[in-house]
Design goal:
Low-confidence stretches: none
CATH architecture: 4-Layer Sandwich
Strand content: 25-35%
Structural class: alpha/beta
Largest sheet: 6 strands, mixed
Number of domains: 1
Radius of gyration: 17 Å
Order of helices and strands: HEEEHEHEEHEHEEEEEEEHEEHH
Helix content: 25-40%
Number of strands: 16
CATH superfamily: Ribonuclease Z/Hydroxyacylglutathione hydrolase-like
Number of helices: 8
């Protein structure tokens, strides 16, 4: 089986906020991770089971409840805690957000594996690179797998994450966009955290050329546009 055909990747829209959850794995080893498990844990597990894939871990781009589970805007969102309750898996999130995740989602410290930018993770024989991309939250992280980037709320198609929330930093987001993501190969396929576009994917090259938030070469220009 070729590397291309071996990669298992499903983008699933979940919940009323147009979130994307992702199943990423190794078709040959029949193992997958669930990225940003929220809203419909039973449905996401069912998709994996129907594809004969075993979920072995949960990866989280950031601690907001629409990506992790918890209470938000009067909604109780199922998420990573329910995933751990159903399957013997650990939830991987950036080390700076462990305490937030416990408060937001009900996860215990024993449920979590705390990560750093540059860490490597393997599902089956498929490698995943963790990229720390702070800005939207202090511990926002993206996942790079076989020239595909699952970007959470750091980078959207044509836009980027908010920086007016507690813990957000426009300075950090600019550095993440221009110093970490924009330098990836142009052909890297972008898989965002929300369905905010008429397309489900883009590329880093397309975003570098057309996404206004990726085109500011100076920090002060970016801050001005973001209202700072």
């Amino acid at each position: 089986m070729s590397a291309e055909s071996r990669l298992y990747l499903k983008q699933v829209e979940v919940g009323p906020m147009q979130n994307y959850a992702y199943l990423v794995g190794d078709r040959e080893k029949k193992e997958a991770v669930l990225i940003d498990a929220a809203w419909d844990i039973d449905g996401l597990i069912d998709i994996a089971e129907k594809d004969d894939m075993k979920i072995t871990a949960g990866l989280v781009t950031h601690f907001h409840p629409d990506h992790l589970g918890g209470s938000m805007m009067g909604m109780d969102i199922t998420g990573a805690a329910e995933l751990v309750g159903r399957l013997p898996v650990k939830i991987h999130l950036h080390k700076s957000e462990g305490s937030y995740a416990q408060k937001v989602s009900g996860l215990s410290s024993s449920d979590m594996v705390l990560t750093e930018g540059g860490d490597d993770f393997t599902v089956g024989d498929i490698p995943i690179k963790f990229l720390h991309t702070p800005g939207h939250t202090p511990g926002s992280q993206c996942f790079l797998v076989d020239q595909r980037l699952v970007s959470g709320d750091t980078l959207f198609i044509g836009s980027c994450g908010r920086v007016d929330l507690p813990g957000s930093s426009p300075e950090d987001l600019w550095r993440s966009l221009t110093g970490t993501l924009k330098v990836l190969p142009e052909e890297t396929i972008l898989y965002p955290g929300h369905n905010y576009s008429d397309r489900t994917t883009s590329t880093i090259g397309d975003e570098a050329r057309s996404n206004p938030y990726m085109r500011f070469g100076k920090l002060q220009e970016f801050l001005s546009v973001m209202g700072y």
